[in-house]
Sequence to fold (729 residues):
Amino acid sequence: SDMPVLMDANRASPSAGAGDKPANLGDVEMKMGQQNSSPMQYSSRSPVMNVPSPSDNAELPARQEASPKEAHKNSHGKMPRGHRNSDAHVRRVDLAAIVTPQDVDEPKDPYARIARFLYKDYYVPPNAIKTEIVAGLIVGLAVVPEAIAFALVVGIPPQWGVDTTLITSLVVGIFGGRPGLCNGASGAVAVVIVDIVQDPNAGVAYMGYTVILAGLFCCVFGVLRLANYMTLISSSVMVGFVNALAIIIGCAQVKAFKADNIIQTGAARSNSTGVPNRRLLSSFDVFVDGEAWVDSEVACWMLTEVAIVMLTMGLLPLIKHEKLKWIHNIPSSLIGILLATAFEHGIVRTIGNTQTTTIGDIGKMEGGLPKLLWDRGYDLPPLNLDTFQKILPCASTLAAVALIEQMMTLQLVDAMTRTVGQANREGVGLGLGNVVAGLFGGMGGNAMIGQSVICIKTGGFRRLSNIVTGLTVLCITAGLFKVVNLMPSAAFVGMMWMICYYTFEWNSFRLLFHACHNEKNRERFGRHHKIERSDLLVIVVVTVVTLFTNLAMAVAAGIGINLISYAIKSGETVRLSAKTLLLPTSADKLADPDRPGKDCASDAVVEGTVVYEVEGPLFFGSIKQFMDLFDYDGDPADVELHCFQMSIMDYSATEALVKLADEYKEKGKRLHLKFLKVENHRLLSKARGMLEGISSWESTVHVNEEDEDLEEMRDSLFPEVLRHRHSGQ
Fold:
């Protein structure tokens, strides 16, 4: 209560007049010496402290009245330089220096800190317990069918996929940094781990080691706090990522229509050619591998079950009747699978006198608790360098793909809840979950986007919902596994095809179509969904490269194209904003306008100063354009480069400045760097041994561009700094 009043920087004061502007982002106004008589209120969406309403604090100044600053405004509505920020009762405070709610009254005792952390992180209000439990139950019912389906994609027993979901849901839910995020066996992990499972030189025995190593990579990612670098993954990369993921998962479901679709869990699997199954366009191998298909009658019944599930998942969410809204609390995929199961045993096997493949036929679930890695029934490979070399490529890819989808889902949940999750802690939690899953022979997992959305929409914002999800999966595994064994595999095919439908970004076709038309046709037909063709190229490349290699390589290729495109575009932003010629004598003695650096009577260098004001980033991609801005022959004896809005980014930029100074030095002229930004001055000071050719270089006092007008600043600085320069300075 003894803290000063702070104005919210993101909106205007509640008492502000209609003509007042909101406070600038990044700054807040602080009333000095005035205390707040009411408790400080914190916003749940922002770390900025909210100001109490005028009714709560009558001492707040009325902003309708003209302040001393407004009284001194000139005719252009700007403050004279002598009066800017001169009020004694107002000062600027950076938002980074504001005390956040987490820092207030932080206990010093380590045990008290641990107790505070546990209370804030795991406490559930009594009125929210019921909602959290219901959300966990709903998500638990929804994740089991997907875990089974993804296990079938990999080619392992469904029990192993369910065990993975059980373990990751509990471990990541407890130790992760984003409550409400649902974790389990996912499609992104399935399409990667299948490489090591179907590799004839490795096999399913290497899967546990691979998942453990991938989990360790995720832990290192979180410990090194590398989550901020995930911003390098653009939206176009994500679109290509999910499109390729949908294609791979969709194609993998076709294997269910093969006559020999029984899962083998031997130590190694090989095909007739003795080469790994994963190769160029291996996702489409199922169409040309020569294996026999099921007969036409069975195929028709399977397609009917597929249609039942797909129609149920597509039509059930459309029910809007008030009396039937309760049905939305049951996962539509579960309802569809139960209907398909009833169709299988009530019609196909009684009326049709035939049967389709069930989960029990493919890989029978046995129930019980997860078994440790060395109790899975196969011989583990030795822990040596050869094993490490076999699992390293797949483990690296698995970690990268899992982290990408984890961070993407975390950002989605952050946007839905309007809170900020701990991305680095989430990486550590994901790693721990996969390490434990690998120790139990699991396939590895990460965040499940669809189930996380369901969890949040049903009120599962806290860790209790994740724990209940894991316990629900455990109950289903231990008690209802016999029911799962009766479910037809075609039902899971229908569910996965609907997931692929929802995963694929169908809007990318419209973007592609609009980008192929010129501006005239787009305006004529009202096609206003064009994006940069470089972004469209990224979408196509990521999708295609995934089909040829894997998701990690595709994402790396997309990021590379984005960075190259950005470098090219940024290089074009370097430009000359102003060029001013200042002579030591009065203005009546002007230079030849065609040759401003030469005297009219001779070729001698004119004593004077030319000021270049360059703006934009100076780096390897903009060096050539930067060097072309200068007139080496025509400039006078002193050349000043004003760096108000120029950023020195890398070694190439430093080399360009050295080269620029050498060019002028060869012609008997001097180069001066003025008004360097603080970070640029610090960078050059570390490389000052290379800057001997530059006559002088100096930093400038920090100028807040939101408060100072650059044109006004230049008008005031030129007469004082340039026209009255001391000789030799």
User: Anything to note?
Assistant: Residues 434 and 444 are 5 Å apart (CA to CA).
